[in-house]
Amino acid sequence: MHFIRRRLAALLVPVVLAGCQxxxxxxxxxxxxxxxxxxxxxxxxxxxxxxxxxANPLAVEAGMKVLRRGGAAVDAAVAVQxxxxxxxxxxxxxxGGAFMMSYDAATGEVTAYDGRETAPASATPELFYExxxxxxxxxxxxxxxxxxxxxxxxxxxxxxxxxxxxxxRDLFGDAERLARDGFVVSPRMASMINGxxxxxxxxxxxxYFTKPGGGRYQAGDRMRNPAYAATLGRLASEGPGxxxxxxxxxxxxxxxxxxxxxxxxxxxxxxxxxxxxxDALCRPYRIYVICVPPPPSSGVGLLQFLAMxxxxxxxxxxADSPEAWVAFGRLQRLMYADxxxxxxxxxxxxxxxxxxxxxxxxxxxxxxxxxxxxxxAAGSPTGSPPRGEDRTAEPGGTSHVVIVDADxxxxxxTTTVESIFGNGRMVEGFxxxxxxxxxxxxxxxxxxxxxxxxxxGKRPRSTMTPVLILDRQGRLVGAxxxxxxxxxxxxxxxxxxxxxxxxxxxxEAFALPNLVVRGETIGADTxxxxxxxxxxxxxxxxxxxxxxxxxxxxxxGIWRDGRWDAGADPRREGVAVSEVR
Length: 581
Prior knowledge:
Elements: E1 9-13, E2 20-21, E3 29-33, H1 35-38, E4 51-54, H2 57-68, H3 73-87, E5 97-103, E6 110-115, E7 129-130, E8 133-134, H4 137-142, H5 152-163, H6 173-181, E9 183-184, H7 187-193, H8 203-209, E10 222-223, H9 226-238, H10 247-256, H11 267-271, E11 276-285, E12 288-292, H12 299-309, H13 322-342, H14 353-357, H15 359-366, E13 398-404, E14 410-416, E15 426-427, E16 430-431, E17 444-445, E18 448-449, E19 467-471, E20 476-481, H16 488-501, H17 506-511, E21 515-518, E22 521-524, H18 531-539, E23 555-560, E24 563-568, E25 575-578
Parallel strand pairs: 2-11
Antiparallel strand pairs: 1-3, 4-13, 4-25, 5-6, 5-14, 6-11, 7-8, 9-10, 11-12, 12-19, 13-14, 15-16, 17-18, 19-20, 20-23, 21-22, 23-24
């Protein structure tokens, strides 16, 4: 990769988008642009599909089939999720949750759909305590206490009712056929089946992953899931009510109530689950507008990172520059410090969104970048109440999907069962989530409650940050996102910096080495990082260790010159397919 010199051109453009929050300030934000790289991103012709990017080719093909039939982007999302729950069950499924960003090409409206799971009515701040102290993390994951009311299906049903064109019952055929007739186990799924994760060794998982003749499924084996096929048939014909208030919901509650450590999730909790439509949170970056979900998603953290990045000249030096990578790591430390301290479910705690994105606060935090050589404390944005230290652990078991239909409607969805195979418990062919372990195990620090403490009915904080990228006229330019547990913010930030700041093609930006710097935790794709960059990072207090968090799975694309410049993370098995003509 080569350094690309930026010619600075100042723009002063107000952001006005239907359905978008501006985070409390309508003040225009100065932006800088590199003409030779950004001109290609302008929407000279409206972005359109068919286009699908997802973590498995079978899921992508299912989505493309829906689009070829004239389906909307959200119709295809239902089909893609149904297949992912079968061929990538370690990452997402009917028993999990999701956040989805939706772009309506006719109106320009951007909507955030919240399908995050909720804690049962019986939940208390000490949900994961035993004998007066927090449980070991993996014991909590494997317990019934870890499962929240699933939200992905309800969220997709809401969005499909809002924006879909095809009948709900006609969106599950590919997944049902693959489950009934069989699919070939991919290398990644096989590695999870045969890996060390305790969730892959529960009695439910062991029964599912053992071949009829004995031994566990391996890559290349054909696998069937007749229970999942039957579930999809019922979901197609009876609708989401088969889960929410129906017999499958009852089975989920019964399975959660089994030992070890039974959970309190009830049929009533599941039947009472409601997905939410939220105003998207949109902010300018360079000459674009980045739209993300509001809390309990951590999208505000990404927007804060980008706002600080605009005030950090070293980041402009390019992908080969040690100074740029040092700045990238230092910005992360500032971002994560604030995210960890303040972000939670806004229906239960005050989150200082406007304060975190206030230009003066952002400038003050960005001014600290040259001094950051270790973990930093959270700042004190306007509107921030006293908050206890966060003690949230976020292992990864997540997937990302981007879809654009022929009319230019788009979705960007991050979907998850939280950890690998969720908590390892299964109902009717799918795994249950362990999403409640995304709460802080320690609910308070002295007199100050943690923003992400457990509460009945509350949604745990999530790092999932699906992104839509618009131009300043509100037209779709692109969409990206990634799995990765707590590292999602670092992965998505890397991709945006690579694409927008460093002028890289999308696939090259996705393939850049990962660097995750969160407090004292530092992880990287060490084999990909040059000695010069490694030494510079070490001198700045970022001594590299191999990345121990979930690896990235970036998917998405940018509309350039009437076509999709698309990418699928080489660390996973996904593909990005466009049939734009």
